[in-house]
Amino acid sequence: MLCRFAAAGRSSAKLVAPLGCLVSRQKHTLPDLPYDYAALEPHINAQIMQLHHSKHHATYVNNLNVVEEKYKEALAKGDVTAQVSLQPALKFNGGGHINHTIFWTNLSPNGGGEPKGELLEAIKRDFGSFANFKEKLTAVSVGVQGSGWGWLGYNKEQGRLQIAACANQDPLQGTTGLIPLLGIDVWEHAYYLQYKNVRPDYLKAIWNVINWENVSSRYAACKK
């Protein structure tokens, strides 16, 4: 569950505040996928999944470990200048690790269709209908300039669902305060080998593999 991600993944959506914890920690690791690389075909092909997971996500994990070691050294030396200079890399690689860890569980070979129960009712309440929600999240994701993510998030203070976009690998909760429920990666590495530069075709296809059971579980956990 995303609300528990900081404990489960040894990361935090708030990337700056808990950095004192870096003095003693375990290294981040690349999570296994809960399905085979070819399991999402024909909607997302095996080559994309393999490169996306084993190369791109792995690079974020490796770089995050390196940056945290440097940050640990800067903390030990009391070098505030070095700490500040490392924060963009920490945000980028830490966000990349957080975002992709969520993304893999948001997908399933048994996905697609519509959510059920409490999540569906919340979507209807906050967006009018599931079709309207789908159209809005697709439009926001298509409209991301360059690289980034489209998100369905939960505003805990207002008790409502919200759609948002984040640039690059900015983590949703760390930059907007929204708790991420469903993330759609619109970096070109997520679709270019199959869909070329036609991002709308990729977004049309990805709805066929959305793991609504996982999204619903995140929503239920975040409301507690």
UniProtKB/TrEMBL annotation:
Binding residues for Mn(2+): 52, 100, 185, 189
Q: Which UniProt keywords apply?
A: Manganese, Metal-binding, Mitochondrion, Nitration, Oxidoreductase
- What is the species of this protein? Pycnonotus jocosus
A Gene Ontology cellular component where this protein is annotated is:
mitochondrial matrix
Catalytic activity reads:
2 superoxide + 2 H(+) = H2O2 + O2
Q: What is its EC number?
A: 1.15.1.1
Sum up the protein's function in the record's words. Destroys superoxide anion radicals which are normally produced within the cells and which are toxic to biological systems. Destroys radicals which are normally produced within the cells and which are toxic to biological systems.
Q: What class of enzyme is it?
A: oxidoreductase
Identify which cofactors the protein needs according to its UniProt entry: Mn(2+)
Q: Which residues form the Manganese/iron superoxide dismutase C-terminal domain?
A: 115-218
Record text on subunit structure and interactions: Homotetramer.
| Listed Pfam families | Sod_Fe_C (PF02777), Sod_Fe_N (PF00081)
Annotated PROSITE patterns: SOD_MN
Q: Subcellular localization, per the record?
A: Mitochondrion matrix
The record's comment on protein family reads: Belongs to the iron/manganese superoxide dismutase family.
Q: Give the Manganese/iron superoxide dismutase N-terminal domain ranges.
A: 27-108
Query: What is the protein name given in its UniProt record?
Result: Superoxide dismutase
